[in-house]
Amino acid sequence: MPDYVQLSDEEIKQTLQSMPEWEYRDGWIRRLYKTPGWSHTLMLANTIGYLADAAYHHPDLALGYAQVIVKLQTHRVKGITQLDIALAKRIDEIVLWKPGEDSPFDGYPKTWVH
Ligand SMILES: C[C@H](O)[C@H](O)[C@H]1CNC2=NC(N)=NC(=O)C2=N1
């Protein structure tokens, strides 16, 4: 069952302490990802879009040549709920994944999305 309880400014501040790349402003949480260029910007946008549709909770996206800005809000409360936090964490987890040192994969040879 969705949790539409709006988090207080203090709760949001507390929560974002462990998500330092995310900023709370004007009733939205937002993060900027830097990408290697336009094609990765589009791949990133699609990956976020896919996750968002699986969750049925959709961010606003602003695309640039080498960046994607993600904004999340729970519309029915015009504020932040656990849904926004959960999706933000899931997006970070998936799109920032890279093979580790012990992995057999080489990984992308240049700077990845960050
Ligand atoms: C009708 C539909 O369930 C709502 O519009 C959903 C869809 N996606 C959504 N996405 C986000 N980010 N917040 C919402 O409140 C929201 N609501």
UniProtKB/TrEMBL annotation:
Which processes are annotated in GO (biological process)?
Answer: tetrahydrobiopterin biosynthetic process
Establish whether keyword Lyase is in the entry.
yes
Catalytic reactions of this protein: (4aS,6R)-4a-hydroxy-L-erythro-5,6,7,8-tetrahydrobiopterin = (6R)-L-erythro-6,7-dihydrobiopterin + H2O
Q: Which domain of life is it from?
A: Bacteria
Which leading EC class covers this enzyme? lyase
What does the record give as EC number? 4.2.1.96
Ranges annotated as spanning the membrane: none
Specify whether Lyase is a keyword of the entry: yes
> Where is the secretion signal located?
none
Keyword list (alphabetical) reads: Lyase
**GO MF annotation list:** 4-alpha-hydroxytetrahydrobiopterin dehydratase activity
Query: Pfam families under this entry?
Result: Pterin_4a
Q: Which family does it belong to?
A: Belongs to the pterin-4-alpha-carbinolamine dehydratase family.
Name the UniProt record assigns to this protein: 4a-hydroxytetrahydrobiopterin dehydratase
Q: From which source organism is this entry?
A: Symmachiella dynata
